[in-house]
Fold these 2 entries.
Entry 1:
Amino acid sequence: MGNVNGVKNENAFKRFVFTKTQVEAAKLWAQGFTLAQISENLGVKYTSQLSRALSDFHKVAPYLRQAVQELSNVGYFLKLHKSKFEGFKAALDAEEQLASLGKWPLSFRSLPWGYVLEEDRSIKIDSEKRPTLERAFKACADGGIPDKVAKELGIPRYVIRNILKNEIYKGNIRFRGKIHHFEHLRVVDDETWNRAKDALMGGPRPPPPFGFKWAGKELVPDEQKIEKLRLMFKLRAQGKGCPEIARIIGVHHMVVYRSLKNPFYKERGIISPEAWDAIQKVKIGSKELMKRLQERYVQKIKEENKAKILLYLKSAGPSTLMEIQKAVNLSKTCVADHLKKLKKLGLADKESKRKGRWYLTPNISKSQF
């Protein structure tokens, strides 16, 4: 390094050049990696090239270490950080001065939608977009859903969300915690702005309960579904299960399950408290449930492979797995899987022997199959 006291140094004004790849290679080398491993890790084609790069860096490293120690001792890094901070603070002060004068302190890309930027960085409302802004605020203030309003006005959803939470539309430029008011930047009055913002702060609305729909901020009965809802409770009171009710009224069984447990319908008078309590006590016994499952399953499998197995067992009587397989023309694995499911449902069973024969259980009567 050069000596400030005038002592001659052969390294005075000498440039020490190194690359980021050399630094990464030196770090891996210090951890014990071989040249081949380092080459593969850094994507260097030839190990000879990597070897030369490391050799050059080994010559530079001692000077770098000495320079960092000397600079740290005299407070170089603290001063460097301080000078950068002072420059950053000066830039912020200049931007705050612009905001206090009603001028846009940030970049053009961050300019709020519906405003235009003049050459002196002053801003004004875009006359072509002002009607759209006023309609957006009025619609949301009256209970409209922001995303739906954006679609109707032909603007992106993220734009209307930024509009509803930006105070500039009521004449305020907020910068570094300070508010600067300029009436010429106002698009709507404070009351409309606050009511429109409430529509956004509420977040996305949850799906309405089955049989109801959103009308603004209120839940109102859906005439197309409310009769299905009443039929749902009526069928449950008769002891029918959720899958059966779902099949009758044409909805998913989870819709039935959630609706039957939702006290919302009792509170809205769709069902009386007494009837609600009675329905909550309806329990389907395991035997009755199994019977219904068997009936449904038999009805469903008439056109499936399992029906072939049941028909064969009914006509041929007790049969081995191989005999069933040949008769129904299915793979052994497929037949075995079907037989296990039939056994689980109580429709077929197997003799206790290791290679026992399969037979129909008494659960399948002539009326069933």
Note: Residues 47-73 form the longest helix (27 residues).
Entry 2:
Amino acid sequence: MIDIERIAPNAHQVLVYGEITREDALKFMDFAKQQAAAGEGGNLLVDMVSMAGFSWSVVVEELAHAPALMAWVYRLGRIALISDEAWIRSMARLESVLLPGVAYAVYDADEADAARAWVLEESDHPHAGAVSAREAGQDVVVIELTGRLDRDEAERAVDLARARLDMAGARKLMVVVRKWHGFDPDAALSSHVMQGKLELMGRLDRYALVGGPAWLRQMASAFGPLVRPEVRSFAEGEDDAALAWLRS
């Protein structure tokens, strides 16, 4: 089933729940055609968290109406898709690459508020707020990463860490990763991020990574002996242990 509603003068929400049928696909295609015929663009929020499945007739209908659908999609300013299924998010990210010129962001279920805020243009960046600083005293700077890290937030993380270290005169950094949803590839390719990381590594005495996927902590441990500061990784929830090590 799908429900379509206007949530702002320039934004619609498509709520998908249960199993998507051919009738649902036709309903959505009719909506897209009407919007295109009216010359309307705006933003679109697609919530697929409660989707239970789909029939292949849906795919057939989408392919049959692809030209009309694309005519409308390219009028859209922002598209946000929310799903708790990894394969749907992966397919959506691939689709976003194939739609140059369309601002397309993908969110996990616990990022629904951020998705809605972006579609309603209450935030300038799709994953704004993924990076924040936490007070832990003058001797240690603590940066928290929540959700997905895109290029804007990755660059902000570097700037925030640098500013906090300058302000406190600290040489110890702890990065806490919560609800990790990965990072956009161009975040890793940013020269601002790469140069910033090198600068930070050159000024730190100790660096602690708390939480995040196992591969991220393993990478931190593997590269630890190759960089100037002492590096140690900790499992999620071991904030106190990490702070104790940084201060030992």
Note: The chain has two domains: 2-119, 131-247.
